[in-house]
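Subject: Sanity check before I submit

Could someone independently write out the structure tokens for this chain? I want to compare against mine line by line before I put it in a report. The sequence has 98 residues.
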Amino acid sequence: MAQGCVYGLQTHQVVTGPTGRPYAGSVAIHMDGAPLPPQYTEVALVQAEGYGQDLSTLLPALKTQAAALGCDAVILVRVDQGAGHASATGVAVRIAPH
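---
Independent answer below. Compare away.
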């Protein structure tokens, strides 16, 4: 095992806008390149990463982070997967009502 490798899931966030009460609904995922909602408020950059992780653990972790910040979507989601390490990064937002 390489020195400094941490197995398991880790999450990180950088708050860039106003947070809200935790969101109890379903958080949408919009992958990078997908159409964006017409209006939204950016709240944070969110990331999930770890060795031995994949989409089945990374995307739910992004959703959990977003919901805790009061967001109903994560947009511009990018996934990087290597031989053992994987990460997903996106922007947690609140979509404006129509």
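---
OP: Matches mine. For the report I'm noting this point. The beta strands are 10-15, 28-31, 40-51, 73-81, 85-95.
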